[in-house]
Write a structure and sequence with these properties.
Aspartate Aminotransferase, domain 2, 11 helices, alpha/beta, globular, Aspartate Aminotransferase, domain 1, homodimer, 2 domains, 37% helix
Amino acid sequence: MTLLTTPRLRTADSALRDRALAVVPGGVYGHMTVLQQMPPSYPQFYSRGAGARVWDVDDNEYIDFMCAFGPMIAGYANPVIDAAAAAQQVKGDALAGPSRHFVELAELLVDTVAHADWAMFAKNGTDATSIAVVTARAETGRTKLLKARKAYHGANAWFTPNPAGVTAADRADIIEFEYNDLASLEAAVAEAEGDVAAIIVPPFRHDALYDQELATAEFARGVRAIATRIGAAFILDEVRTGFRLDMAGAWEQFGVRPDMTAFSKGIANGYSLAAVVGGQAYKEAAASIYVTGSFWMGGVAMAAAVATLTLLRDTNGIRTMNAAGSAFRTGLQSQAAAHGFGLVQTGPVVMPFMRFDDDAELRQVFAFTDAAVRRGVLLHPWHNMFFSAAHTLDDVATALERTDEAFAETRSLFPL
Amino acid sequence: MTLLTTPRLRTADSALRDRALAVVPGGVYGHMTVLQQMPPSYPQFYSRGAGARVWDVDDNEYIDFMCAFGPMIAGYANPVIDAAAAAQQVKGDALAGPSRHFVELAELLVDTVAHADWAMFAKNGTDATSIAVVTARAETGRTKLLKARKAYHGANAWFTPNPAGVTAADRADIIEFEYNDLASLEAAVAEAEGDVAAIIVPPFRHDALYDQELATAEFARGVRAIATRIGAAFILDEVRTGFRLDMAGAWEQFGVRPDMTAFSKGIANGYSLAAVVGGQAYKEAAASIYVTGSFWMGGVAMAAAVATLTLLRDTNGIRTMNAAGSAFRTGLQSQAAAHGFGLVQTGPVVMPFMRFDDDAELRQVFAFTDAAVRRGVLLHPWHNMFFSAAHTLDDVATALERTDEAFAETRSLFPL
């Protein structure tokens, strides 16, 4: 059996890493850094994308299951979306005020998201979650934010998972509970002593490094009921999940609607945009807060968002993602079994997370990811992955041919 | 003398305002809303820009002195910058990691900004000021941030000028002092009792609604000396001023260099980008904090920034802006005198602020701005304005022909 493939060319990538280390703290920072936390073959710098493929700076091609960590939802270089954006770009992006796309996108979101009566736009997912929290505080006149332990809602001082540079005051208004645990949520409510402004939750548990956990219907309905009972805002954080689970809202399956939802990532297929949508009850409060940004009114990303959401809706993009995601999950599971691995895949098939049984130090999953990357399949060993409407069953079939070899190679490194 | 001109066409703008009010809190929010705070003729929605001109959605043309509140610095639809951005856009923006532009832009900033040894990138000016503050706290292990009263450093809960939705904890680590007043800064230092992480200041006082005030050399040198003495970070907030005053840093004129500088707005001529640059002493701390964003590694805005900064440097864009700004200030001042107005113009000529004497309720400046807008000159009655490298002396001469009429009209409304 052929096991180790030749390492792929890494000349340009290595040179850029060295240059980056000289002029950027840590070389590359944030969720995209590969230094010290990813398998050795993982590329750091990329040159281009098309459909469901990306190319690194050494021109190695990958079938991409990261979708830029979510922003790509309808294929890299999607011609319809890029044409809509380019048509506005030649006219201008940041102007002296918003363009017509601002209104058209707000109307489209109100039409698309079941609970939405209004929309506001920003540039980061963190902007969107923060606007929702500030709006909740303005409406309720209360301070405390209840969030699930380990849940990621952004990288500002309220939320960042790393305490460096964070003060006690930054977290003074946050109380944590356990996801999918209503008793724990009730305990957090009690601890707040009537001062709960908002409860924020993701539609399912997608904390990095942990098995994903779908919300139970009981939890979803309970969050809604508790927020209503105590007069707090219920904020659904769909920054990561938006338009991949249900165009109308991730908890429509439970008949549960939040007061506000935060979107970003896939909303404009990679153009920088975030949105908050909300119900009538929070509209006046949302108008009373001061939030703004230098580029927030730019028309290009909004034109791209209108094109993205329209395309996903008209082509049933979510069904396409699910078909590809299901095929990949089933294929990986049977390959793992054939090679004697206990592979644990969790979360929605369009946003899979994988780990190996008895692999607490991630050695097997790192080896497997490394082997897959060297064969042109871009997976992630400890973060959820993403499917897009551009992932075809052919892409999945090709990727599975390569992952079968990657399992074999991994088995050779970890003999039974 | 012809005074009131025919109101310009506002059909499309009015229709969009009505539609926006239905689906967006407040219609338009933030610094670009015109509802209830701007003269009646002011347009709200825009369709395009070219050079130093913008067109509203009714196709009225304006000589633009707002530059999108700063992002436009080298002309709308600048062909060189847009070509650089488009060349990356066809390859992809958000990919699985940064592009080569990430490294090239960091190197260019280190070459351009005198005190910079490293750079990090984000999407909002607020991101940049916040990253600098968190980095300062990580390096010093202290908490307090000293800022000038009324100084605007962003729209997050630490900084927003409007208290709606802001909690006591959000501001618990901030102590204020008076700009250009070292005794006041020393008092703030004393109040912090050894716990100062950072002092943040803009290069000059540009608070909306107030006369602008240049920093004195004594103040600039004093801020640097005090920060050094107490072991705190000195952060210069150049989000608004960056690359309009001095490519190497706004306080180079005083021989004063900060520990970190925040940039955004003009850095990429309208493409969404922010940057923090810093000195070696803060590099390790900057690598230790967790900040990131879904679109922060996108190559398009970085390619645009490389092109923008290169163009400004190679063509001495700041000299061009100053020539236009000086001509406009001189022209306005003599026109105002000829019409019997006491016009007060403050701040650098490239970022002018104007008000009328004895006009506490802004009635005269609103009337003047309204008259100028109806004649195709986009001014602002209570916020600083901006010049770009695309503003020619011909643009200024044409604008001055129209402002002379606007002064005359204003005089007719406020007879001597």
